[in-house]
Each structure stands twice: as C-alpha cells, then as structure tokens.
Amino acid sequence: MGFYDLQAARDEYRLSCGNGGMNHDLVLTFMDVQTRLIEPICPHFAEYVWRKLLKKEGCVVTAGWPASNEPDLVLKGANKYLQDSIVLMRKLLQKQLLGSKKAAKKGAQVTAVADSNLIGLVYVNEQFDGWRAHCLQILQSIFDEQTSCFSPLMLRYLLN
To answer: Which of 39, 116, 125, 159 could form a disulfide with 46 if both were Cys (CB 3.0 to 4.6 A apart)?
Structure first.
C-alpha cells in the first residue's frame, strides 16, 4: 500500500467515525506504520515522530519495515459499500435538516438536532432468499473456478 493509499484509508476511517472520534490505539498504530514508511524519505522528521510523539525507544531506522497481510478483497468491497452508504446517509440527513429549497425561500425555520439524538440502523442479511438465492445458484453453476470466469456458452444460453 502506497503513501497516498494509506492517507486515503485514514481519511475514510476519520469520515466514518464522524464526531465520535477515532480509536486512539488505531491512530497510534497508523502513526507507527506511517513513520516507518517515511523514514527513508524524511529521516529527521521520522525520528522526531518516533521519539517525541510515539515515545519509542531506539531509532526508527532500526525498527524495520512494517509487516502487512494480503488484502482481503471481500472486506475491501464491503468497506466501499459501507463508505458509500455513510456518504448517502449524511447527504439525506443534511437534506432533512436544511429542508427543501422552497421551504428555505419561504423563511422556514431550520431546527438543529443534537448528535446524541441521531440514530442510524443498518441491517445486514447474512444470506439471500427467494429469487435472489435462485439467481446466485444459477450463476454459481456456470462459474468456472479454474479460470475465474463464467462459461461464455452457458451465459449466452441463459441470456437468450
């Protein structure tokens, strides 16, 4: 993951936390990883962050490169969906709080709602049922795991 990807991940996390604030330990872990990554480019700044802000012993240059796991693509897709949903919910909330443009032109009062009074529920199905499950079964039957593709002949047959 590159520098800008790491920054984007932090920004997404900050956005999803909203006014609740970010997790302190996770922010420190982010700072640790970021400091190790920028050490070859900005060694003096990295040493400053390592010792003064992170309060770590020794030098960042001897700390080693940060380790990571293979990316979980399913989790990445779920996160993308969740981030898009958060943006949509915030837009809907903003629209509700501000009211329509017509109401604003007529001088309608905008009432502020305290963050503690805002509640959002997200329901997640663990499995599909009915026609959705049937469609997924059909797609699964024509999917070739060796080539990671759908069988073109079967797909053409189903679409005709």
So the answer is: 39
